[in-house]
Request: fold
Amino acid sequence: MMLSKQQEAKIQSLIKEMTLEEKIGQMNLASVSIVGGFDVPFEELIEMVGDGRISNEEFGKIMQSAEQDFHEDEIREGKIGALMLQDPIKANKLQKIAVEESRLGIPLLIGLDVIHGFKTVYPIAIAEAGAFEPELFEKTARMAAKESRSKGVTWHFAPMIDVARDARWGRVSEGPGEDPFLVTEFAKAKVRGLQNDHTSTEHYVAACLKHYVAYGACEAGRDYNTTSMSRSLLHNTYLPPFEAAVKEGAASVMASFNDLNGIPCSVNQFTLRTMLKETFDLDGFVVSDANGIRECVNHGIASDDAEAGQQAVNAGMDMDMGTGIFSKHLKDCVKAEKVSESAMDEAVERILRVKMWLGLFDNPYVSEETMHRYDVLPKENIELALEAAKKSIVLLKNENEILPLKKETKISLVGTLADNPEEVIGAWAMSWNIEDCVSVKQGLEHAGANFTYYPCGGPEGGLNEAEIQDAIREGDVIVAVVGELVSMTGEAASKADISLPGEQRKLLERLLASGKPVVAVLMNGRPLALEWEQGHVPAILEGWHLGVQMGNAIASVLFGETNPSGRLASTFPKAAGQCPIYYNHPNTGRPGSKSKFTSRYLDAGFEPLYPFGYGLSYTTFSYRDLSVKEEPDRLIATVNVTNTGTVEGTETVQLYMRDVTASIVRPIKELKGFQKVTLKPGETAKVVMELAKSQMGFYDDERNYRLEDGIFQIFMGANARKGMMQEVEVTF
Ligand code: BGC
Reply:
């Protein structure tokens, strides 16, 4: 965050002028309090959305008419520095109070969960990451920044960059998958997209990297659960995306709910101060997750709110989300010399720098014209959403080339998910309009498909036998849209059983028993356990929750206008019992094999169902002539990739390495690069990729970065399981 000398001076003079209460105010992030106006308690209302008793849309309507407290008096008194909000009229009104009526006139920072798009909702992150395309990640983030800023939102609680290896965890949907390299590329691109277009203050927002750190490693995939790991694992796998994104300029970071090796991340001096601030050199500030500081009392690390607040500030926490603990207790903590005022000056300086960099001191309001700019989605935004959705779709199976379908084919479209536009959106999106959402059924209609729709059943449970019979009788091909409701994914949505929910497997069985070809289109927010489906359903398309253009993207792939090119950013297990399962695991003394006394399951073997990086195409690719050349500071790997099929297609060439012998057990493979190539039938591309030697080391527990001479295996191929390999001896 580059600031001018005058801006820096202004920040310093403000800090000098501020009272202790005003400093604490800047460290306080409030949300609009719902104080009534509906028949049930607010907590129950939230539960009703969670369990599907009311839809998101109905909830939105109730919220619009709910009585809310916007904390106007506290803003006037300088007791609130940041707010969660998405209403531009309100935002302007509250900014005016902050700027014109508070003593020092410091503008508010307005934050929101804009995880995968604002009005234009893009694929959920686990899906978008599968496009393996940083330029795309950047573009969708840039568009989301512009849209949200037009409504006065200047701070995104995104990107979510938790490396996640356990499909039971509901939040795998929100992040870019299991691999630290891909997550890092995603994180950097998102920060660039959100923050780097300074052609106007209307074009950028502050990113907030979350959840810091190791939240994705919550034990047994249960949300909010404890995490334990060696320091070397933390340094090699969980910290790198955060480090890289901080170096890319990320303006803020959100501490995670979990404890890490016994210390909750909200009060963790090592992760917050030593790593984030002193080692990675974060320029901006750290915010807690919602209620995270208070939860330190539940963790049993602080005896009460005051102690939790004190621990948080001393550990390097700059802003409290939602508890008001700083407002209530920090003044006394300072008086009692348990917290130094200089720690608070540091926090305030960091927060003010972000506000200054956002241009809020000069430009706190959104104009009438700006705030309506995206009310009707511009063509460009819709096209980007369609592009992102198409690129995220993964073809998992295509026996006898059932796909693509011919437009004339008589299709029975099946599954309640196919006809529910709300369900295309995915977890954590809150600013979309239902009119912009295209369901699979609508997508088929737009494509002019020859189809009839029979709901038959879905994730909610229950099958309609008569509709199943009709679907079987009428269609020449059955397209069954199956998967998860959005409410089954995201925060607080961990699952012990990750097979298709409800009676959807039975539905597929009934359809398959007819002998008609069945195509399963999946809508889901986590890797599902699909061993049975892989064994029985001839064609499977992974559609995830693809955002507003989902239906059009699916139709385009079903009819072959788009050749699917998405890859899996997460390993798919055969069964939940294999979780956590990920390709880049350390080797064991008894690597899994067919023989009994090896690291395997009696009933699920040692291989996943689909490996990381996996995805088919309507064409095929072959790899030849891998060669690896050593140069003083890098390896150059080259391979010839040929399109051996009959249609044009895009292959994602993946470069992996393995350090064969090292002083710490290393992963059996590590992704180190990828490159997408689009080839015509019969065409060959020479794909050249570089692996800098500086990328070939690893951290030990003391964070020494070790580059150890020896044999390395270099792989180039289609996924983490399939590729060519060459061994090279490398000296550093
Ligand atoms: C989530 C965060 C989110 C925050 C604010 C929390 O419950 O863990 O990811 O940013 O709420 O909505």
